[in-house]
Amino acid sequence: MRRLQSSKRPSRVRVPDPVTFDECLPLSLPLFPVCLLSMRAVNSSENTVIVAIVKRPDREEASVMPLINAGFNRRYVENANMMACYNELLQLEHGEVRAQFKLRASNAIFTALEQSQDAIEITSEDQVIQYVNPAYESIMGYQQGELIGKEIIEVPKSEKNKPDLLETINSCIRKGKEWQGIYYAKKKNGDNIQQNVKITPVIGQGGKIRHYVSINRPLNDNNKCDKSTERVQAESQTDIQSSKHKDRRKGSLDVKSITSRGSDGSSQRRHSSMARIHSMTIEAPITKVINIINQAQESSPMPVAEALDRVLEILRTTELYSPQLGTKDEDPHTNDLVGGLMTDGLRRLSGNEYILATKQPHHLPSHLATPLSLNDIPPRIAQTMETEESWDFDIFNLEAATMKRPLTFLGLKIFSRFGVCEFLNCPEATLRSWLQVIEANYHSSNSYHNSTHAADVLHATAYFLCKERVKQSLDPIDEVAALIAATVHDVDHPGRTNSFLCNAGSELAILYNDTAVLESHHAALAFQLTTRDDKCNIFKHIERNEYRTLRQAVIDMVLATEMTKHFEHVNKFVNSINKPLAALEENGGNSDEESVKSILTSPENRILVKRMLIKCADISNPCRPLELCIEWAGRISEEYFAQTDEEKRQGLPVVMPVFDRNTCSIPKSQISFIDYFITDMFDAWDAFADLPNLMQHLDNNFKYWKGLDERKLHSLRPPPEILKLSSPRNVSTCPSETWLS
Question: Which H or E run contains 53?
């Protein structure tokens, strides 16, 4: 005979010395009930399961009835295998013992239901009423006997609800989801009452719905509140439709009115408020994941529980998508580069301030005030743009041909190719004026973040928009938003990083609370420049709702270029789009067009595609032909050198110490940037959009930088003497490609 018990916590199992049933045979079975009742009478034997351990019977049909009649809960056939015995004990604990432990609380639970001021109704899975509490009887005017056993549909309904509301509720809860909202119920006397209703499905064994619990709180019945409560509610609740706020506020006031009568009302009110906060159902997805893991830990072996502890530790951090770097000694280039791009800087209290954006935005230059049509573009510039549809298009040739105004001319051609003027219903002259104003607000003094970079990003965006998978995903309004976002995404960039501006206490950092400072400024300024003057307002003739949709898309894409969210955007794209598409292909190719379409065109995934598109366009330099890649690397390095110089002059924290022009290894910085930011992102984008030429350029460029680094070279290009040794005949034609070969 063996007894399992758990006096306070069901997870504890105490196993007394076993006594086999055969050893008890001298005792007659009628004596066993007395023994077992005595055992159960002991205080520590709550939640007890008493097991009879018997020898294997000679006949299969041996009856268990004598054991049951004697008071045993379970029969167990003797087994020499210790693991089998251990498994039996575990099953008993997690089955009968824990079930009994839970049942102990049932009286207390029903007492809570009976005392609740909310009307509570419990129905079966077939929506037959099984229980209503006294508050329900009081509010609705029914007695329990009139409702229990009736189907919900038999209870009269209010005609004030929308016709499809019941269908909506049933559709939600039958899927196992909770529904909460405003519902009109009809009292027994025929009066309508507005209630805040929460209906929660109760999931039983096997994942099936067993019950529905409905918690109803009246919104317009203040009869039970005292006069002071009614007055405060009247002052604080001006809109009865804001049900959730009214619901929370009313509960708080009820607690106050009740507990203030006691001598220790203050402490009681605080206790009640905290209990209410902990019972809130507002729960983020990550919180749900943490709760699931916590529950899994309870029944997990020790090694698994310890591993789950580590998982929880990681999940509770704020940077869920950012890889953790090693020590600075391991890779100072990567640490400095990533730290500079993905943080908001080190706060400084010295008072050194960096003045930015106190000047007014540039107006349209007078010598460009008369808009020209696309047909009036000078032949030399037009000839330079003939290959703009190719990925290998040389933006620097256009920069030279237009005297550092490539954005206006390339913008006119690309926007014309995509029919942007027709979509926006704006004249070409307005578009040209807008492009000129935007370009005038890029800083030509910046070595990297100037209008040439904007034109390059616009070119990459247009190239990506022509890819078949991208076209399947996006609507015309998305394409227009992407082109506009690419054009304005760095407008008025000061040539300094967000970290620098935050450390310097710049006006922009103060305005945007050190959060996405530059990206917020680019988006805001773009719309200020566009809407303040009808001559360049490309949005003037589009419908209000369309403008709102377009504006939100542009803002979202510009903000997506902020590097602190880089890994979040890439991970979401991979998990929401790449993986589901790959699964479909593995299960039968692309034949399931509807499934592919549903993945590509869902509103959430369209947003992810647009974010990924502009991110890849923004930092596509390592995927350009080698000569263009080298030029961009030199320009961004010069901008970072200038920032480091200024940080040292002003006594500010040096955000990226490796970008010291006297010691920096440009090849190492490029290798780190490609390894950390580019490779995974473009692998994902290539899997989606099919970009083999970009991936080939990326491979070539990485090998080029790796070759320089292996030779301990810090410069953009190898010295001439090395080039001569490599291939003297071709050195004059294309030095870098000769070096690569």
Answer: strand 49-54
Q: Which residue has the tokens 């692998």?
A: 683
Give the C-alpha separation, 544 to 711, whole Å: 59
Q: Does residue 499 share a domain with residue 430?
A: yes
Structure-token pair, residue 8: 């306070």
Tally the domains of the chain: 4
| Residue 393 shares a structural domain with residue 486 | yes
Per residue in 191-222, pLDDT (tens digit) is 888 888 999 998 876 678 888 999 998 875 44
Query: 613-633 b/e with 16+ CB inside 10 Å = b?
Result: bbbbbbbbbbbbbbebbbbbb
Look at residues 631, 640, 711, 692 and name the one whose alpha carbon lies nearest to residue 669: 640
Give residue 224's pLDDT.
39
If one compares 184 and 519, the residue with the highest pLDDT of the two is: 519
Overall residue count recorded for the chain in this entry? 741
Which of 449, 453, 521, 522 is an active site residue? 449
Q: Closest by alpha carbon to 472, among 689, 687, 684?
A: 689
What is the DSSP pairing of strand 129-132 with strand 119-124? antiparallel
> pTM, whole model, 2 decimals?
0.59
Alpha carbon separation from 476 to 374, 407, 472 (Å, rounded): 22, 22, 11
Q: Are residues 38 and 153 in the same domain?
A: no
Q: How far is CA 363 from CA 54, 454, 592, in A?
A: 96, 19, 53
Assess whether 449 carries a catalytic annotation.
Answer: yes
Are 654 and 626 contained in the same domain?
yes
- Host H or E run for residue 130: strand 129-132
Q: Is residue 733 part of a domain?
A: no
Tokens 């105490």 — which residue?
A: 14
| Tokens at 549, concatenated | 């949709």
- 667 near 714, Cβ under 8 Å? yes
pLDDT for residue 604 is more than 60: yes
Specify the 3-state DSSP secondary structure of 678: helix
Q: For residue 468, what is the enclosing H or E element?
A: helix 468-473
Beta bridge partners of 197: 181, 216
Structure tokens at 282: 């507002």
First to last CA, the chain: 84
Q: Letter for the amino acid at 257?
A: S
- Determine the Cα–Cα distance for residues 498 and 363; give it in Å rounded to an integer: 25
